[in-house]
Amino acid sequence: MKLILKPGGLVLLAVVLLGLTAIVVSRFQPSGAALAKGSAGSTVASKNSTATPTGMGREVLVNGGFESEFAPYVGVKASDAVDISGNIGAGWKDNSGWASLDLRYDKDTQNPHSGQSSQKMTVSRKRSGHAQLTQLLEVPAGTKLSATVWIRTNTTTGNQDIDLWLRDKDDVAKVYGRQIATATTQWQPFTVSGTVTEKTPAVFMVLVTSPDITVWIDDASVKIVP
Questions:
Q1: Which of 91, 126, 129, 143 has its CA 20 to 30 A from that of 212?
Q2: What span, in angstroms and rounded, lies between the C-alpha atoms of 190 and 216?
Q3: What is the DSSP string of the chain?
Q4: Could you tell me if 138 and 148 are in contact, meaning their C-beta atoms sit under 8 angstroms apart?
């Protein structure tokens, strides 16, 4: 007995064979989940990845360019020997209330290093202590930080030193990094770095040690580094 296939039957047989082939192939094809877990495709993707460890290179300072709003000084004065007034850039705090000096903060738009404004600090009649502009840094212990800030002053004579600190918020003895910057009337960058060792917040501090000086601060940055 001969099996005779008509043209329509040939077409039907071809469709059935193709369907069986597709089913067999699909059973041996890795799924998307398998590729993600460790197939050759995922290996190539991981090698081409440019991702960095969590937080690496992240900016942790707020309003380092002093382009956000300025607000009137609000703080506690330890005695009548200190007179602090003016406006401070958002995110920053004064820590000079314990000293004996006159200090005024201003938003300055005449000669910023970049952008539209910088922070101006005018110190006069300093008898003890230092003018201190600070910002808290919420980073875990073991974090290495690198800080940069641009500074200029109104004089090239006398004490032009600006003291830059990275230290623990509560313990003045826990200093992570310190740099004395000799500023001039021209904008200059100064850098300080250190590794946080305590669980309490760190703090970035700009200390003005001169008894009679005007200082401008701009384009500050504190980043997490390897």
A1: 91
A2: 13
A3: ------HHHHHHHHHHHHHHHHHHHHHHSPPHHHHHHHSHHHHHHHHH----STTTT-B--SSTT--S-EEE-----SSTT-EEEEEEETT-EE--TTSEEEEEEEEE-SS-SSSS-EEEEEEEEEEES-EEEEEEE---TT-EEEEEEEEEES-SSS--EEEEEEEESS-TT-EEEEEEEE--SS-EEEEEEEE--SSSPEEEEEEE--SSEEEEEEEEEEEEE-
A4: no
d(CA 212, CA 123): 5
In tens digits, what is the pLDDT along the chain, a chain of 226 residues? 444 444 454 444 443 444 444 443 344 333 333 323 233 333 333 323 333 335 668 999 999 999 999 999 988 777 788 999 999 999 999 999 999 999 999 999 999 999 999 999 999 988 899 999 999 999 999 999 999 999 999 988 777 889 999 999 999 999 999 999 999 999 999 999 999 999 999 999 999 999 899 999 999 999 999 8
Widest CA span of the chain, in angstroms? 121
Give the CA radius of gyration of the chain: 32
**pTM of the predicted protein model:** 0.74
- Token reading at 183: 């500023």
